Amino acid sequence: PSNRPSNRPSNRPSNRPSNRPSNGNAAPATAASVVEGPIANAAHPASTVVSWLGKLTAGAGAGVASDALLHPIDTVRARQQFHHGTHVMSFPQTCRDVQRKFGLRGFYRGFGAVFVGTIPSNALYFAGYDWCKDVLSERLGLAGASDVPVGSVREADGSVRRETQAERGRRKRHVRLTHLTAGSIAEVLSAFAANPMEVIKQRVQVEGVQHQHSPHAPPPTTMSSSASASSASGTRPHQSRALSTASAASPSTTVTSWKVARRIWREEGLRGYYRGYAAGLLTWVPFSGMFFVLYEEFKDRLATAFGQHVDKLAGPWYFAAGGAAGAVATIVTNPFDVVRTRIQTIPGQYQGISHAVMSIHRTEGFKALALKGLSARLLWIGPWTAISIGFYEEVKRFIRYWNDSHSR
């Protein structure tokens, strides 16, 4: 009884005035209420291990789920981009071509390679992005930004206030740089695991597509026309007929991912699996950097509009933000993807990225670079990014909930 009167008056006046002026209308309880799992669990190594194992698993699962649903559209995209000539094959026309030559199973050509490759590549992609973002955020002083509402700043005493205009501009620049860099690094890590799968997958996907040159196109520099055609399927001239007639006429000779993988190893060696690696980086590094910048920006704007923290957004908004960001990045990077597909599926015809760009532009026009496969690519990547990032975010949300419940 003798202590209570002396303690309460001495504590309350000393604390409250120091918080309220810098906080505006926010109370100290509000600042405490926004502290979430990352801070609470920082001292629990087991939670950190579970978190990163969960992110790796979530990334792999997101890739498998998205590829399983959308691989048929990717098959159409590959065949559109591989097709030579000034004419751009339409999406329905390409679908009919696949159905006529291979039946419904033809839309899943090359999926065996995808299933094997997508697990490590997507685990590295999503978990690598989160890891790079965390490291860069800490270096740039943004580590606390994930623990307060968007547009607010946590003071040293734990209180939260609205950020100034200058602080907001500086934060925006640093955040965009972080997302751009983290997305690009994640893609480099992922591409090393994904490229062999891409080469195998695309060579199986384009089997039976007419491979012919424009009348004004120069012949391949290192092969005859028949040699170039047979190389598109990964075979030598004396081993098979040209690609334009072999598989289309005889479905029984349909190759599998395993057959193509063995053929590449036998005839091209390890380098064959990394054909088009530079062109792939030229396609997917800008794509990933742009995608994550746009995705995080869309999430930020949605969180601001709803007055919520980005981690508290409803699940469908993650899908919407991911799909919109993926569609924009797809349109911008489509020319590089056309070049990548050609290099990976027609070994020997192009002497590098610049030669492929100039050759396609000279013989088929800029329209081929900008539009070939774009419709299928939009129908493929837009939903792919929506499903994969939405799935990944929901699993991360579950991991945070699990960590919080087991740390109490």
Straight-line distance between termini: 33 Å
- Radius of gyration, Cα only, in angstroms? 26 Å
Number of helices: 16
Which stretches are low in confidence, meaning pLDDT under 50 for 5 or more residues running?
1-43, 211-252
The assembly state of the depicted protein chains is single chain
Q: Major sheet: size, sense and barrel closure? A: 2 strands, antiparallel
Q: What string gives the helices and strands in order? A: HHHHHHEEHHHHHHHHHH
Structural class: mainly alpha
Main sheet strand line-up: 1-2
**What's the average pLDDT?**
76
- Care to count the β-strands? 2
> Which word captures the global form?
elongated
Helical content stands at: over 70%
How much strand? under 5%
Features:
408 residues; mainly alpha; two-stranded antiparallel sheet; 72% helix; 1% strand
In brief:
72% of the residues lie in helices and 1% in strands. With 408 residues, it is mainly alpha-helical. It has a two-stranded antiparallel sheet with strand order 1-2.
Describe the protein in words.
This protein is mainly α and 408 residues long. It has 16 helices and two strands. It has helices at 4-23, 28-33, 37-40, 45-82, 91-102, 111-139, 165-205, 225-232, 243-249, 257-267, 270-273, 277-306, 315-345, 353-364, 366-371, 374-407, and strands spanning 152-154, 160-162. Strands 1-2 form a two-stranded antiparallel sheet. Helix 12 (277-306) packs antiparallel against helix 13 (315-345). The longest helix has 41 residues, at 165-205. It is elongated.
Topology:
Elements: H1 4-23, H2 28-33, H3 37-40, H4 45-82, H5 91-102, H6 111-139, E1 152-154, E2 160-162, H7 165-205, H8 225-232, H9 243-249, H10 257-267, H11 270-273, H12 277-306, H13 315-345, H14 353-364, H15 366-371, H16 374-407
Antiparallel strand pairs: 1-2
